[in-house]
Amino acid sequence: MPRYNFKETEARWRAVWDRQASFAASEDSSRPKYYVLEMFPYPSGRIHMGHVRNYTLGDLVARYKRARGFNVLHPMGWDAFGLPAENAAKERGVHPAEWTRENISAMRGQLKSMGLSYDWSREIATCEPQYYRFEQKMFLDFLEAGLAYRKESWVNWDPVENTVLANEQVIDGRGWRSGAEVEKRQLSQWFLKITAYAEDLLKSLEGLERWPSRVRLMQENWIGRSTGAQIFFNLEGRDDRLEVYTTRHDTIFGATFCAIAANHPLAQEVAKNNPEITEFIASCNRLGTSEAAIETAEKKGVDTGLRAMHPFIADCPLPVYVTNFVLMEYGTGAIFGCPGHDQRDLDFSLKYGLPVIPVVAPADAAEGFTIGEEAYLGDGVMINSRFLDGMTIAQAKEDIAGRLEKMGAGKKTVNYRLRDWGVSRQRYWGCPIPVVHCQDCGLVPVPEKDLPVVLPEDVDLDLPGNPLDNHPTWKDVDCPACGKPARRETDTFDTFFESSWYFARFASVSDSQAFGREAVDYWLPVDQYIGGIEHAVLHLLYSRFFTRALKQCGYLGIGEPFDGLMTQGMVCHQTYSDEDGNWLYPSEITHDGKGDLVTASGGKPVTAGRSEKMSKSKKNVVDPEAIIDAYGADTARLFMLSDSPPDRDLDWTDAGIDGAWRYINRLWRLFTEPAVNPAPGGAPRPDVLSPQVEKTHRAIHKTIAAVGNDLDRFHFNKAVARIRELTNLLEDLKEGMDGAAWVMGEGLDTVARLIGPMMPHLAEEVWRHLGRDTLLVDAAWPQADAALLVEDRITVAVQVNGKLRGTVELPKSADKETAETAALALPGVVKVIGESTIRKVIVVPDRIINVVI
To answer: What residues are paired with 751 via a beta bridge?
Structure first.
């Protein structure tokens, strides 16, 4: 037979699946359901190797579960809104909608070339009004339920682009695109009240047993529950108090200063008459709002002149500083500084010459304990703390909290690091927020009958600022309540809004409602969700919040959106650079006659660097289209599955893809040029199987069981390795061996079914070659014969005078005579015994035989 013709074969079988609507899903209560979903992509215009890996993993799960008898839903869509499309459209002089739809069309074709078992009838694109009209209605329902609100908030503001930037878009204090110094500004923003579910989001993590533990830990840390105390410090000469949140109220006697955030109301008040503080606040505003920026910045402050009175020490005023390291968004925006037991506070105190009082010391070194340049963060007993001295930290916390409550100077409290989700974005290419601002009526929701609020098509993206603000007519509208002239909300939703409920839309794509309740009750939750670890917090946490909010508003009946989560590793490739340090694409290098790396054009030296995540910036990328065109989709899929576990990084190598292609052709030859002509399907089992044939027969059933177990546990690379071992055994069968034709037939039938989820095009082709008149995609998973999984022969070690001399294969629980005879016949044993006298043979059944001479 000729070499496997993947181009003709893969195209033909994809056409068959399309004609047969093989992957169209519908509710069927007679079968168990299984909803497989990979995180949907942003339509950039081209798939990359990360997509290939992610979607191959999901497709394997979907096809495997289908073969196992599950009613499988496996959809695909597009996360199509966002600033990248707007920027790309600006650069190319086209409308974002046109650019996005062209990219979707291109990527859809690329994904279809992979043979993915998607139900394309459920395809969605979040930029289309028929999608976002429903999320506008959800927002209005959230608003009515008190889960959405508008307030003033501090944001990163780019003064050149006149837009809000996410923390991730602020690099070294400057806008990632404009290079302008970023400012903090207070703007009216829309928020979703995710904090209303903070405790439930945290506690429910325990029930997500099929989520990776590190993802659960990341969410736990992001929610950041802490138990502490609010302490009210009276301010000297004033009637108001400074409210502080702390988790270390046990260290109150070590307090030597208080610190407030630059945007704390007290700081703003004092700055009105203090130019130094005004300038300091301005410098803090240039830092950005991210915790990372604040953590890494040098700790600075300015004395406000205010003094906070210690609640337990009379005449002990503590200086109040405006600082650059306290976040207004965490706790109360104010802290008391205990430099003895917080490194940040210690660094600050040493810089400004403030006292350092140790109040916790190791139990065995309490006397004379001092603090140097490192704060003491360990456990111990209280010192220098009056009535707390000698207590443990836990005892001191309890005592202080009780005294504060009795004094009216504080209380125990629980705090969360989690903040409400700001969903306002000042850009065009996003879902319009369905609210009208009326001078007389205030904020007025757009009536449901007027949804969707659609983006204007005649927009100028070249002007600075929000394009919807700049539009001459779109924002002008009559108030739905009073009919007077009013103004539309010109902010659009954060794109995480769309991706927080798309999984439910897939379950029921309807023109009249977001989703049918009966359908979502059947399909949800998603049984297996697959995506990158980079989405561990924001997307996954927002989706969990959305599910709760939708349940509260009557849309859903489930508590969690994703029952199982798999986070796949990255696809990596070696990096290359020329003599000037410029990155090179793998296609730009070659080997010279000496085996050294050189540039393909010019033959100049090339330096090979380490293998890193594929990225356009380092040019260590491989084009999936080129690989599929050269080797076929099944080869690319096989390589993605066979080289490493799915949750670990995978190194892309030419040798690896070549090896996968060679195995594809070995499989093809195994079916088309078998060493033994297989018996037809359904042929009776022969009465006699030769030993090697019997071994292969057992291996077939052991492989069925092991591969199924591996796929259930996502050990995909192990499953591939087991199939390779089985095909090696089938290749070793020979004509003339008793029962070889029958076992070959059974083996080829089994291999075709086992490779179906991994290499679906090849599997369909060899299934047809076996004479089957049905589609493999509709065939059941093979069943292992339990009797053949039990090993009835066992390998036993043979020793002479305690030293290993060989092994023998014996029937399980063989009698002593059989074991002894087999052991004494081993050539290694015969040689060692020679003329010596055998004193005795010790047989430990099924374990060891020791010949004593």
So the answer is: none
**DSSP secondary structure code for residue 732 in this structure:** T
pLDDT tens digits for range 806-853: 999 888 888 999 999 999 999 999 999 999 999 999 999 999 999 999
Residue with tokens 């240039």: 286
Helix and strand element counts for the chain (H, E): 27, 35
CB 103 within 8 A of CB 45: yes
Which residue, 470, 293, 496, 254, is CA-closest to 382? 254
- Give me the helix-helix angle, 213-223 and 538-552, nearest 10°: 70
Q: Please check whether residue 236 is in contact with residue 242, taking contact to mean a CB–CB distance below 8 angstroms.
A: no
CA angle 530–525–528, rounded 5-degree value: 25
pLDDT in tens, 143-160: 999 999 999 888 888 887
Residue with tokens 């990084």: 649
Both tokens assigned to 461: 């993206």
Distance from C-alpha of 525 to C-alpha of 246, rounded to nearest angstrom: 39
In angstroms, rounded to a whole number, what is the distance separating the alpha carbons of residues 29 and 763? 29
Phi-psi region of 408 (alpha: psi -120 to 50; beta: other; left: phi over 0): left
Closest Cα to residue 376, out of 365, 386, 388? 365
Confidence of residue 295 (pLDDT cuts 50, 70, 90): confident
Q: Position of tokens 């509208």? A: 477
CA torsion, points 489, 492, 497, 498, in degrees to nearest 10? 120
| Burial (CB count within 10 angstroms: exposed 0-12, middle 13-18, buried 19+), residue 128 | middle
**Cβ neighbours for 200, distance < 8 A, ≥ 6 positions apart:** 548
Rounded mean pLDDT of 635-664? 93
Q: From CA 853, how far away is CA 803, in angstroms rounded?
A: 12
Do the beta carbons of residue 108 and residue 468 sit within 8 Å? Answer: no
Structure-block tokens of residue 720: 């591939």
Closest CA to 300 of 309, 287, 289, 288: 287
Give the burial string for 20-35 (b: 16+ CB within 10 Å, else e). Answer: eeebebebeeeeebbb
**How large a percentage of the chain has pLDDT more than 90?**
79
Chain centre distance of CA 267 = 40
Alpha carbon distance 70, 30 (integer Å): 10
Q: Find where tokens 């069968």 sit.
A: 733
107, 191, 209, 620, 753 from 47: Cα distances, Å? 6, 33, 32, 15, 29
Q: Token pair of 304, please?
A: 């406000």
Beta strands in 446-547 (DSSP E): 476-478, 485-488, 492-493, 528-532
Which whole-number Å values give the CA distances from 516 to 33, 65, 94, 507, 523, in the listed order? 17, 25, 36, 8, 11
The answer, yes or no, to whether the previous bond of 525 is cis (omega within 30 of 0) is: yes
CB burial of 54-83 (b: ≥16 within 10 Å; e: otherwise) equals bbbbbbbbbbbbbbeebbbbbbbbbbbbbb
Average pLDDT over residues 584-597: 87
Which phi and psi (to 5°) does residue 112 adopt? -65, -30
Confidence of residue 290 (pLDDT cuts 50, 70, 90): low
Q: How many CB atoms lie within 10 A of CB 718?
A: 17
List CB contacts of 225: < 8 A, sequence separation 6 or more.
198, 199, 202, 414, 415, 416, 417
